[in-house]
Every structure is written in structure tokens, then in C-alpha cells.
Amino acid sequence: MAFVQHVLFDSALPGSIRQRALDRIYADPGIPVNEGTTSSFWLQTPHPTLSKIQLSNLPSSADTVIIGSGITGASVARTLLQCRERNSSIPSSENEPSVVMLEARDICSGATGRNGGHILETADDYVHLANDFGEDAAKKIMKFRLAHLQTILDVADELMIREECQARKVQFLSVYFDEETWEMAKERLSRFKEAMPEESADWLLYEDIIPEEFHLPAARGVIAGPAGAIWPYKFVTGVLDSLRRQFPHDLHIETNTPVQDIITSSEESRWPFSVVTTRGIIKCRHLVHCTNGHISHLVPGFRGRIYPVRGQMSAQSPGDKFPAYGMKHSWLLNYDRGFDYLTQLPHDHAESNAEMMLGGGFAQGKNGGVDDLGISHDSELCLYIDIHLSGALAAVFGHQNWGKTSGQSVKNMWTGIMGFSADGMPWVGKLPSSLTDRSHDRNEGNAAHGAEWVSAAFSGEGMVQAWLCGKALGLMILDHDGKQSTGESADVRSWFPEQMVVTEERIRKSFLPRQIQHPTKEDNPHL
């Protein structure tokens, strides 16, 4: 998160370039476009039943409509539907589904289907959080984020999709190549270990002797720790497929059904929201936004608070000398400017053959990455990032350790749209009319009336935030309705960070400036 804010307010860049980025950030991000999208490796084998799923006619109503079919929407749906299963007092109707999920394109084709597949938390995040929110808050946020690894693995095991989605524990190697960044990394690790000794017990530091098996001849130092890797599209489609089979009448998924508008009822109504789509109107009591970087299209109050950022990913063939480390390691490659992230897929799997899944290169993008801020379409590649990602691996691991690649070295290169927040935290909770510009909350104290909700803005770190944010939001909706959820996770406040909750105070404080305040000499030679 911090690196994005840094480039946006870097006075070394002409203010006109940064102002154009702010203009994009405050613009309507629109609806995800179907035509001309870049080809994600993760999406190369569409799910046989979910990819383009839709009924011949859109349901006329539902208790809850979820916009977005990524990892967040899947988590919200699972939480709501599992509560229905446990609580027989909640009525069920074959004519009105409990949950309808709307997706503008094919299933899970947005950020989740285009990310890096990392489940990774670092000591750097703890230090940034402690500086921003204090030690106690930082510890709670870190515990929340660290919990995602085991939680996601447990869900994959429960649904028996661990092999299919390649969910695995690995050891991450966070690699540093210069003295300055390495010294700062050691200080941050020391602070994290001192504050959270139990959680950081497996974090290791390699400096004087870096194991040869790491194949990192240029590394100044390495920090290693527990992490995970996963095929995110297959995880989400596995979850949704399981829910459809378990709740055939209570869950409907409608792909290629973009939402165009939201109309609120001016009268007392069972369904306060009319969701206008390209295929008709569906009425609902609760409306849940899980659209991340596109959120401010339908919730205009988020403009300047949540904004799209384009990221770039690649799938590459390993050199013939490089080991098959897909079940052992993932990597974070830290440079003097920016970083890359890397996993390797399992060797000789039915759908993978040790591909290197390398993403990043933001700082190597045009104008240091500023030109990717506020971009909401995934139809183009950045040439400069393409050049960087296409040539990085042999240099990082050493040409002598890499060898030659057989066939096409870069199998896929694609982009995806992330949702970043001005204060670095996700936004989770009930939406007030100050954000939506819709006066639906006149009866917000009445459980019989629904509400609009959001879980979005994971600032490029969705795999350690989105799943449990979605679960927390589902529990908030159940609490609003007075429905009991069982288990120790039901008390959301005990484990969910308050810094992520939607509040009026946060709305007042957390936004980017509309104008660049300090012009540079490049913009005005008379300064």
C-alpha cells in the first residue's frame, strides 16, 4: 500500500502526471468490460458448469444479492448459507433464493482470477501497521491476516479440493539485493519478532551464509517464513460449486449479468432495493458489494477512498536447470525500487508443469507506476513491466542456475484490477447513505429492513484479507437480522480489526486529495 501512495506524491514526478492519476482515481471506474481482456493463465481451463452459468430468466427477487463472484463474494455467500443450514427457523422458499450472486463477466474473472496466488504476510506489514495504528491494533490485524493461511487450507480440506486448487504450505523467501534495503528489512523483522514472538517463531534470517539450494547468488540477505500458495480461481469455483450442490434452491449464480443501477423503494417494502441489470431487475432485502476496484461505480461516495490499480502477472517456463520448488518455496523479490512476487506451480500436475507465476514490476512501469493508478480495465499490458518480468528470473536466480527454457518462455502475460484504499485498510460493513447517495437506511434500526453492505479494497493483499473480511461481513448481516451464528467466530468484534469497519469518522478522514498541492519546476519553470 505505502509504495502506491509514495509514487503518487513523489515530487520528483511532474505534478501534471500525478494530477492525471488523481483525476482517474476520482473518475467512475465503470463496469468490468468483457471484450479484449488479457488472458490469465489461471482462467485457461474454465469451470465446466460455473464459467458462464445463468438461468434462462433472472430471479425476480432474493433475500440477498451479492455483486461479484471472487473470493470475497464466495466467502459472504458461504457464511450466509451455512447459517441457514444450521438454523431451521429461517424459512426457505424454492421460489425465492436466499442468495443470488451477480457477475458482470464469466465466473471469478476479476482480481481473484488474475492475482499471484500468494498467501503471504511479512514483517514489513507489522511495522507499517504499528506506525499507523499502534502496537495493539497492529497485533490484532496481523493475527487476522496470518489466520488466512490455515483457514483457506482448512476450507480446501473440508471441501476435498486441496489437490484440485493446489493449496499448499510453503516457505517464503523474501530476498534483498542491496545493503540499504536489507538493513531496513532486518530492523523490521527484529521489531516484529519482539512484538509477536509466538507468531514469528518460524521466521528465519539468512545473511552471512545463504543456502546454496536457494539459488540466489546475488542476494545480500534472505528472510524466510511460513506462507501458502494456491490456484485462486480453482479454490473459489470449488467453493461455489460445493455451495450450489448443497443449496440448490438457495443459491443462484448469474454470470455475464452486469449491474447497471440500483433503485431504492420510496415506500415500506419487503425489498428496499431494485438491482437493475442487463438481463432485468432483481429485488432484494440486502445488497452486498464485493466489486473491489469497481466499487465506486455503484457506490459513488467511495471515489477517492477506494480506487482501481492495474497490476501485471505472468506465467513462465522455468529454466532446465532450475529445481521444481513448487511444493517448497515462494518468493518475494525486493529491489531498490519496488518488488516482485513469485510462486512455482507443482511439477507434473494434471494442469501445471512447474510454471513460474511472476507478478509485480509496478515500480518499473511508466512514470514509476503512476500510469497504472486509476486504471480500471484489464485489456492492456504495460510494455515496460512486460520487459521487466520477462527478463527477471534468470538474473535473480543466476544464469548458471537457470539454464535454457524449452519452447515459449513466457506462456501468458496479463493484467488485473486491484482495489486500493486511501488509508490502506479494507472497507467492511454496512453502507450509510453518505456513501451510496441512496436514502435506504431510514429504517436501519429495524431488522425487518435490509441494508447495503461492502467488503472491498484489499490493496493488493487480498489473499490474506478477503476471505475473513467476507466471513466477517456475512456475520454482520446475520447479526443485523437477529439471526444467531454458532461457533467462536460468531463474535466478530473479538477477532475482526475495527480499523477495517465502515464508520462515519473514517469516511470523513480517509480519502485522497482531489488536487496535487505542490507543483514542481517541471510544471512551472518560473518557480
Automatic annotation (TrEMBL):
Which GO cellular component term is one of those annotated? cytoplasm
Record SUPFAM superfamilies:
FAD/NAD(P)-binding domain
**InterPro entries named among the record's database cross-references:** FAD-dep_OxRdtase, FAD/NAD-bd_sf
- The segment(s) forming the FAD dependent oxidoreductase domain are 63-473
* Protein name as annotated: FAD dependent oxidoreductase-domain-containing protein
Record organism = Talaromyces proteolyticus
